[in-house]
Amino acid sequence: AAHTALLSVGMLCFTFGDVGFSLSQAFVPAFLRESTNAGFSSFDLEAAMPTIRQILKTTISISATVCVLAATIIGIFRSSVTGDEAVLATMRKILPWTAAALCLHGPAVSFEGILLARKKLGGLAVFYSFLALTIVVFQWMIRHFGLGLSGVWACYVWVCGSRAIAFSGLGRLVRPRRWWHRRRQNDVDFRRSSSSNIMNVAFSRESFWL
Question: Ramachandran region of residue 175, left (φ > 0), alpha (ψ -120 to 50) or beta?
């Protein structure tokens, strides 16, 4: 009963998270560049990154909103879901797992939509084959170790989280080296600016006393 109630709340919230997939399908294909070779196209990742960042910002905002929505339904409007206190106690216990799955679902489907828009079907097929095997392992562990609902929703978290990480890597959308280089460059620019300001202040004081 608790799983049915949680799944109903989850499916409602997952629907909002799917907006990221639709946004990716709507805006990312504009950066595909068709080549003269039949059936071949290239993708301008640098030009697409500002749009992708906006899609992710929107998706993350929606994910945060649906987490609050799920917590509100289970915490405040719980009587509308069920009147069984045992079921409500179980739902509150599993809520952190549910919230984690909801947070990761939006970015996962957004990254998936970007890969589909870029026609990277090979990587998606390989990953989903691997994911199917891990889900089978999860199901065996849940039954063998008696993990119950915690195990079921941990599997949901794994499915969403692994997709978000794998798809961002397949699309080269998370680039820590470039981020680190940009951060170091900003630090250097800040130090140069600070040194220049200090020298200007010192020169002004010297000029004042002269």
Answer: beta
Does the pLDDT value for residue 145 go beyond 90?
A: yes
Residue 179 has pLDDT above 50, yes or no: no
Strand pairing category for 32-34 and 41-43: antiparallel
- What residues does 33 pair with on adjacent strands? 42
- Residues 71 and 128: beta-carbon distance below 8 Å: no
> Residue 183 — pLDDT band, cuts 50, 70, 90?
low
Residue-wise pLDDT tens digits, 18-39: 999 999 999 999 998 876 555 5
| SS3 sequence of the chain | CHHHHHHHHHHHHHHHHCHHHHHHHHHHHHHEEECCCCCCEEECHHHHHHHHHHHHHHHHHHHHHHHHHHHHHHHCCHHHHCCCHHHHHHHHHHHHHHHHHHHHHHHHHHHHHHHHHCCCHHHHHHHHHHHHHHHHHHHHHHHHHCCHHHHHHHHHHHHHHHHHHHHHHHCCCCCHHHHHHHHHHHHHHHHHHHHHHHHHHHHHHHHHHC
| Of 133, 1, 108, 117, the residue nearest 56 (C-alpha) | 108
Contact between 9 and 74 (Cβ < 8 Å): yes
Amino acid code (one letter) for 129: S
d(CA 159, CA 164): 9
Residue type, 2: A
Q: What is the pLDDT of residues 93-135, one digit of tens each?
A: 888 999 999 999 999 999 999 999 998 999 999 999 999 999 9
